[in-house]
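Hi there,

I know you've been waiting on this one. I reran it after we fixed the sequence typo, so this is the corrected version. Both the input and the resulting structure follow.
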Amino acid sequence: MKKIKAGVIGGGNIAEFHLKDMAKNEYIVPYALCDVNQESLDKTGDRYNIPKENRYTDYKKLLARPDIDMVSICTPNVTHFSIAMDTVKSGKAYVLEKPVAMTLAEAKELYLATKNAGLTNAVGFSYRYLPAVQKAKEIISSGALGKIHHVYAQYIEGKDDNENIPLLWRYQKELAGSGSLGDLGSHMLDMMHYLVGDFNEVIVPKRQKLDGSVLGDVTTEDYFHAMATMENDISATMCFTKFAWGRKNSQRLEIYGSRGGLIYILENGLRGSDHLKVCLGNELALTGDWVDMNLKGFDGVYNTKSQMDCFAEKMLGIKNTIPADIEDGYYIQGIIEAMMDSTQSRTWHKVSDYIIK
């Protein structure tokens, strides 16, 4: 079967994740690389055996190559839209990191352009691929929880509670768009949308900068607390922060219905540390007991393949197994923008006013 020749734009930590998954995939070949830093470009290129003639500091030269089948965009937020639009114009399939754009208008333009071009695409909502999330999706879709009443979501980290961190692009609004909301919150908002359904309204009672840095002014928020209503009269509360001391990539999502409850937990990593607890049926409800689901052996039964595995299968027509694409990215950008507007007005904002379905 044909090998998919992949180009990766960006050379940071996220690009490393993409390259590792590509290298493990039987269909994808890491074939070209672009980074504005020549030293980083060469180190990464050497590590993944990418020929020197396939390394670029100008991404447009990579896109101009007719032998590149797909592009993975792993650059700072401010460049996502422009690079992705150039990729669409080049006619190449793409994987784009989140958030997909700096504004909803950009996200809408990219979504429509991609749709009209008919290109295979994916957005990096990578936590959808975890076994615990896939199992949660199965349980919720089966109706086992009954009518869902409440959702409680949290994504917390402690890595930014350090005044010696340099003023990276993530802490500058003009380069990142937002702080904890776009970086952490976008993942959890997408998970809620994926598992539970559409958002109706959002309100943000608390959005705060705790900037104690002596190295420069942080212009993105450090923590973000919000409330929302979702379809079928579901209420939701959310907390996203980078100032949770001692926590590392910690996620928790609790979903409660009329016949059961479900708790998804992730600690200290993307894969291998996720687990799921359920309380289903009257017997467990009366005793207050929660059962840990056995997530071992999901491969081949649930979608526990990596994003790159699913993307390759979609491109080659093997399976349509990509859970998140540019339409999802556009939708989440609409929620983010509604929340940002709510921080100014301190009033409820209807998501339907932001999104075209």
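Quick highlight: The chain has a mean pLDDT of 87.

Best,
R. S.
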